Amino acid sequence: MFTIYAVSDSIGETAEQVAKATASQFNAEVQVKRISYVKDVEEAKKFIDSIEDTKNSMVISTIVLVDVRKTLTKYCLEKNIPINNILGPCIHTMSKILEKTPDYKPGAIWDMDSDYYRRIEAMEFAIQYDDSKDNRGIINADVVLLGLSRTSKTPLCMYLANKSIKAINVPLLPEISLPEELNKIDRKKIIGLTIDPMQLIDIRKHRMDKYKRISAEIEYANAERVLQEIEYADRVMRRLRCNIIDVTKRAIEDTALLVMESIK
Fold first, then answer.
1. Percent of the chain residues topping a pLDDT of 70
2. Domain 114-263 class, CATH top level
3. Where in the chain is the domain with CATH 3.40.50?
4. Above 50 in pLDDT, residue 69?
5. Closest CA to 70 of 101, 92, 50, 94
6. How many C-beta atoms lie closer than 10 Å to residue 165's C-beta?
7. Confidence category of residue 218, pLDDT binned at 50, 70, 90
8. Spatial distance between the Cα atoms of 56 and 228, rounded to a whole number of angstroms
9. Which of 51-60, 147-156, 216-225 is predicted least confidently?
């Protein structure tokens, strides 16, 4: 199996995401391993020595410490392991443009500044008000997501929270009245999530696979029931005159971008 090592002198999330994005472009069996907090030369050497199958490995690095980065590159070249440092060239280019020396501070992006605390606050908000636990949160939300069950409302709220956006989701069910608070906020804050009926049925059937012992009378994934719910959701969204995003076969990240563009 081919392995991409995502190496960092900090958490390593950026390197891992780049590695996964790279691997996704190939129809091949590729595993991504995150190697965090490689902060000195000895750790870099120890990591390289631990790689057994050098012919089926590559390294993607976001190390900013110059001596560690150079050492890692040196050892990789000695063992014929391809390496790509994705931050080095960017930092060098910006340094030339600004005519300033970089701080070379690992994990600087994760510093606990005001943005960090806003992000934590948004995450706590999403958890506290998830799935209409308390509709009073609607008034204080940056965005309100409306949608049927299994339209990715909760993961989308958590993703937006990581962008410091206070998101709350309201599940739509024909049998449950809409919260009155929706009539008290700007319509631009409300986003409706719609989905192709066939995909929703497939998602719900997959969800129900783990509950096979439950009575067959459950209508959760029943085609007639799903169509009924979709028609109801469509009426609600048109009545509210809110922006609507089709989440059919759309990644959370893609949907989040559309939400952020909608609420500016």
1. 94
2. alpha beta
3. 2-110, 114-263
4. yes
5. 92
6. 21
7. low
8. 52
9. 216-225
β-pair type (143-147, 167-171): parallel
CATH fold of the domain at 2-110: Rossmann fold (3.40.50)
Give the model's pLDDT for residue 109.
Answer: 62
Find tokens 């989308």 and name the residue.
Answer: 156
CA 115 from centroid of its chain's CA atoms = 18
Amino acid symbol at 147: G
Task: Tell the burial category of 51 from Cβ atoms under 10 Å away from its Cβ (0-12, 13-18, 19+).
Answer: middle
Mean pLDDT confidence for 110-133: 82
The token duo for 257 is 């971008």
Contact assessment for residue 40 and residue 47, using Cβ atoms and an 8 Å cutoff: no
Is 50 exceeded by the pLDDT of residue 217? no
Q: Which two tokens stand for residue 191?
A: 């986003």
- Alpha carbon 199 to its chain centroid, in Å, reads 21
pLDDT score, position 214: 52
Separation of alpha carbons 159 and 66, rounded Å: 33
| Contact status, residue 141 vs residue 166, Cβ threshold 8 Å | yes
